[in-house]
Design brief:
249 residues; alpha/beta; Rossmann fold; 7 strands; 15% strand
């Protein structure tokens, strides 16, 4: 088991990619804090994983809530080795001029400001453990942006730049920082990303642009995270791994 005895926090783990990551990490031997703003969803996932998991209700846009999440890991499991910043949101696929300001602010709070809170409170815990790994879930949208998701694309472009900069700044502290760029996946936000209604025809248009012929799945992202979080990747930092079926080629 590649993550045996590691302690990990996964945000947005009440569903979608985060749930897949939390379950896979537990299968690989990690003890996992299942964090989500939806406390009931986090509790469901943690209870299904079992004793290796604990649920925490956390708002990643809030400093105090993020600190409480980090504290929950160290208090329950004694340390923190891996922090996966997976929680994210978007605006509906539409003209950039029709996205209202409140939605814009929410997208940047969840997708970008959360990385600041996670670093402020998470880095000291990782340092105390002798080092560790931060994995930020960005997006192919930050690499090859397309119309209709301009502000979301920008937030993920910021996450990519922040990941690389964090990797350089934290290297001498024994903390590796990597990211994942998933292509559109089968999650609770799929209908928001699609250019139009969620129909087989609309999905087919998106899939036509993915050489391997399907959307991403939570397990695809989880396995990539598992590798980057493991000792197998001990000399890898600052990498944004595209898990995209060839979408960015």
């Amino acid at each position: 088991m590649k993550l045996k005895d590691k302690v990990a926090i996964v945000t947005g783990a009440g569903g979608g990619y985060g749930e897949g990551i939390a379950r896979y990490f537990a299968e690989e031997g990690a003890r996992v804090v299942v964090a989500d703003i939806r406390g009931d969803a986090a509790a469901r996932v943690a209870s299904e994983i079992g004793e290796a998991a604990v649920a925490v209700t956390a708002d990643v846009t809030d400093s105090a809530s993020t600190k409480a999440m980090i504290d929950a890991a160290t208090e329950r499991f004694g340390r923190l080795d891996i922090l996966v910043n997976n929680a994210g949101t978007t605006h509906k696929n539409q003209s950039m001029l029709t996205v209202d300001e409140a939605t814009f602010d929410k997208v940047y709070a969840v997708n970008v400001k959360s990385l600041y809170h996670a670093a402020v409170h998470g880095v000291p815990a990782l340092e105390k453990a002798g080092g560790g790994v931060i994995i930020n879930i960005a997006s192919t949208a930050g690499v090859r942006p397309r119309p209709g998701l301009t502000w979301y694309n920008g937030s993920k472009g910021a996450a990519i730049a922040i990941t690389r900069s964090m990797a350089v700044e934290l290297a001498d502290r024994g903390i590796r920082v990597c990211g994942i760029n998933p292509v559109m996946g089968e999650t609770g936000l799929t209908d928001q990303f699609l250019p139009g209604d969620d129909t087989p025809e609309t999905r087919a248009k998106v899939i036509a642009g993915i050489p391997l012929g399907r959307l991403s799945r939570p397990l695809d992202i989880a396995k990539a995270c598992g590798f980057l979080a493991s000792d197998e990747a001990e000399f890898i930092t600052g990498v944004l791994l595209e898990v995209d079926g060839g979408r960015c080629i």
